[in-house]
Amino acid sequence: MSARPEPSPGTRTDVHRELHARHQAVLPDWLALYYAEPLELTHGEGRHVWDAEGRRYLDFFGGILTTMTAHALPEVTKAVAEQAGRVLHTSTLYLNRPMVELAERIAALSGIPDARVFFTTSGTEANDAALLLATTYRRSNQVLAMRNSYHGRSFSTVGITGNRSWSPTSLSPLQTLYIHGSVRSRGPFAHLDDAEFIEACVADLADMLGQARSDVAALIAEPVQGVGGFTSPPDGLYAAFRELLQQHGILWISDEVQTGWGRTGDHFWGWQAHGAAGPPDMLTFAKGIGNGMSVGGVVARAEIMNCLDANSISTFGGSPVTMAAANANLGYLLEHDLQGNARRVGGLLLERLRAAASPSLRPGGTPRLGVVREVRGRGLMAGVELVVPGTDEPSPEAASIVLEAAREGGVLIGKGGGHSTSSVLRIAPPLTLTVAEAEEGAAVLESALRTAESELTGGQSV
Fold it and tell me: In terms of pLDDT, which residue wins out, 16 or 78?
């Protein structure tokens, strides 16, 4: 696909302005748009997308980690077209061959013994279903969740989300108890080494359980927090938690909506970095498996999945078209070892980002006053935390400057973070990213970081 002629950076057509005005007139104010001049993306190919003005961008956010493999992947588009030509929709009231085939593959990959799979249309719905299963199985509305977490936008998932930027109400059908451990480099245990950190977090969990009723339903946790800014604990924390939870019969739900399918490189599932005490009782998934199609789901042990004593169906979960897309996408991912590519190319990208963030010298030998506090992540899931230069204070302003500058340089990225601050750059390209594209994107991001540094310090050195 050839690129259209590219306009000068920042130009907008009257048609684009009209669309933005129409958006504002009929859609909610809280439906956020990136950029001072929002983009309309019209088409994509591989790791690139084009906007309505014909400008091409390297996509380093993939529709919030959803375009996992590539834009317009022929294997997926062909599978969708062929299935759409047969039947678009049937519901779960009828046997559905693509759904059964995908469930068989996911159950085998999950690591959960005697697994059953229930399909939904999103990660929010998947987590909602997992909470229904856990609270029904345990006959309790008490749920443990991690601080700084995000699990969706439904009433129940907002109720367990530990990030106030994404919690529009304090009302909830659940009693949620928040525990430490998901953010390694901030908080009361940040000064400890990894072993001491895990020990302190387990002690915090034990203390919490000592104050709760004895029938806590489950712990739900993201192995790497997504919206929270790609934060994660030391490997083994959730295994240590699980040993304690099992003593009380408490279930472990691993929210793999953003970490699943090999994105972290080292593992196919995020929970495998914490697998010493065995797999989770449930895992939830969504986003990348559909490569842009609406696919989510829950995997659980049969006794947990089958605990519901009332009728339940899914009108759109397991749709023949979305299942065909997910089957094709999963096959491509496995056949081309995209987990290995995430490990190799992601490692290079993280190396380049850390080099860009290092306190190198200005001409003349004076040090820069950097805006980067930390570069973290695994595989093709990288976070860059930004601060007010010379301080440890999160800087949403710096993140906004970098976001805009990266766009001007032809790279799209995301933002996230905790404590009501979007101060972390979220970088998660499709898993087919090439070495050349990683180098190109890193160079643009380095330039964007320098722009933020210059604007926030007035070009002054320390």
Answer: 78
Output the six-digit token pair for 49: 């997308």
Q: Rounded to the nearest 5°, which phi and psi values hold at 426?
A: -105, 120
In this structure, are strands 282-285 and 175-179 parallel, antiparallel, or unpaired? unpaired
Rounded Cα gap, residues 377 and 255, in angstroms? 17
What is the pLDDT at residue 368?
58
Residue entry with tokens 């919206």: 227
131 has a pLDDT exceeding 80: yes
Its sign, for the CA torsion 214, 297, 165, 222, is positive
* Residue 321 confidence (pLDDT): 97
According to DSSP, the β-strands at 411-412 and 56-59 are parallel
Give the pLDDT of residue 401: 97
- By CB atoms closer than 10 A (0-12, 13-18, 19+), residue 440 is middle
On the question of pLDDT at 198 being above 50, the answer is yes
Residues written for the chain:
462
Q: Is pTM beyond 0.90 here?
A: yes
Model pLDDT for residues 50-99, shown as the tens digit of each residue = 999 999 999 999 999 999 999 999 999 999 999 999 999 999 999 999 99
Task: Confirm if 287 and 254 have CB atoms less than 8 A apart.
Answer: no
Q: In what order do the strands lie in the sheet with 48-51?
A: 41-45, 48-51, 56-59, 411-412
Residue 2 has pLDDT above 50, yes or no: no
pLDDT digits (tens, 9 = 90+) for 370-380: 899 999 999 99
